[in-house]
Amino acid sequence: MAAQAHNDWNERIALAQQMLPLLGQLHRNNNVVTSVFGRLLVNVSDVDIIKSHRYARHITEHELPLEKTLPIVQELVAMNLGTASIDLGHLVTLHDEQGGDLGEFLKRELADVIGTSTEHKQTDVVLYGFGRIGRLLARILIDHQSVDTGCRLRAIVVRKNGENDLTKRASLLRRDSVHGPFHGSISIDHDNDILWANGTPIQIIYSNDPATVDYTRYGINDAVVVDNTGRWRDREGLEQHLKSTGVSKVLLTAPGKGDVKNIVYGINHDVIEADDTILSAASCTTNAITPVLKAVNDRYGVEFGHVETVHSFTNDQNLIDNFHKGSRRGRAATLNMVLTETGAARAVAKALPELAGKLTGNAIRVPTPDVSMAVLNLTLKQDVDRDEVNNYLRSVSLLSGLRQQIGYIESPEIVSTDFVGSTHAGIVDGLATIAQDNHLVLYVWYDNEFGYSNQVIRIVEEIAGVRPAVLPRRKELSEL
């Protein structure tokens, strides 16, 4: 038995090692990002590939065989593909259902991006601020960069905090206590204030005034500026960025005020118009709950509900008791559960108007550094069955256009740290679902840092016109 298990592991390692250079080639040469039911295969090891295939059992109840995905990857390399996000797990599932020649099957499913590899578009991106979200956005942008297409991180704007500022910025990008080390190499050009990350030069610009930066001085034009400082949330404040030279769009990584459109990617990104210059990516909690609420409302109808978020502490709180302008947030974040308010329930209506006035919400900050949970306590327009709801949400996570937003898992041992690094906006914990008559309670995990940052990048790619086609085609909720 032990010898058989050893041989099986070695066989899987061998298959994964064959796959590694092919995945890299697809990413570098074709700007094709691959995944297994949402688990990205970017900058991964052979063991990571095996783990992603094993993870598939949470989705399909069976481990995904590498013997089925390797031939698909080999075919993809020879297909002259253009920019795309391709789910290998979904392709295997569809091919098992349809059968037939693998090459012909892939030609049908990927027809939209075959022969489009010469269609290149590149957009400059600037990060204004370099805190928790800013550094994760930088990591994702660097991971996503291919040779000559897509969004390219060109600059980071910060206020200078001492002579060793650049060294400290590089160190914070290189190491993270929650998300681990940076995947790659980082070096510093002190003479020119440049961070080199995986061969990409990132200009560090020191400024206290967003309106006075001349980005064209650094060869940056028509840039998308992602303001992750949270300092300005209304149109008047954010318009300061547009007064600088070389900027065309601004995206705020916090709920926007006034008439600023709050975008939850996957829900209302279609309201973005070409002449929109200022947008908001809403909040991490709004991104986590809105897709799930959309799926539930479309199927069963929501009469009203209450959202309780159990949220990790943030830098907005105090490490130990001290003065804070906010209620209760001055008490020690790592020692207390802190009851506070959240605007996420109300903010849902900005992306999903049909739920306006139907939700209330509160938040409890807890002593964990990352990964939060939203408890959706809903009264529906019809009676529901627990298994039917779970099967529906599992299908949404697997097959629908919200696959990148909604994850689904059933595991009796899963805890918050298991979701660190999730790219989903939120993940439904199926074992925790409660249904009685027309009352439904759902528990939704979310990495309030990394999952949200991936939602932000999706919006950046959308407004830049470089959002990759997501294949195979996802189903509408009404088709499930």
Automatic annotation (TrEMBL):
<comment type="similarity">
    <text>Belongs to the glyceraldehyde-3-phosphate dehydrogenase family.</text>
</comment>
<dbReference type="GO" id="GO:0004365">
    <property type="term" value="F:glyceraldehyde-3-phosphate dehydrogenase (NAD+) (phosphorylating) activity"/>
</dbReference>
<dbReference type="Pfam" id="PF02800">
    <property type="entry name" value="Gp_dh_C"/>
</dbReference>
<protein>
    <recommendedName>
        <fullName>Glyceraldehyde-3-phosphate dehydrogenase</fullName>
        <ecNumber>1.2.1.-</ecNumber>
    </recommendedName>
</protein>
<dbReference type="InterPro" id="IPR020830">
    <property type="entry name" value="GlycerAld_3-P_DH_AS"/>
</dbReference>
<dbReference type="InterPro" id="IPR036291">
    <property type="entry name" value="NAD(P)-bd_dom_sf"/>
</dbReference>
<dbReference type="Pfam" id="PF00044">
    <property type="entry name" value="Gp_dh_N"/>
</dbReference>
<keyword id="KW-0560">Oxidoreductase</keyword>
<dbReference type="GO" id="GO:0051287">
    <property type="term" value="F:NAD binding"/>
</dbReference>
<dbReference type="InterPro" id="IPR006424">
    <property type="entry name" value="Glyceraldehyde-3-P_DH_1"/>
</dbReference>
<dbReference type="GO" id="GO:0050661">
    <property type="term" value="F:NADP binding"/>
</dbReference>
<dbReference type="InterPro" id="IPR020829">
    <property type="entry name" value="GlycerAld_3-P_DH_cat"/>
</dbReference>
<dbReference type="InterPro" id="IPR020828">
    <property type="entry name" value="GlycerAld_3-P_DH_NAD(P)-bd"/>
</dbReference>
<feature type="domain" description="Glyceraldehyde 3-phosphate dehydrogenase NAD(P) binding">
    <location>
        <begin position="123"/>
        <end position="284"/>
    </location>
</feature>
<dbReference type="GO" id="GO:0006006">
    <property type="term" value="P:glucose metabolic process"/>
</dbReference>
<dbReference type="InterPro" id="IPR020831">
    <property type="entry name" value="GlycerAld/Erythrose_P_DH"/>
</dbReference>
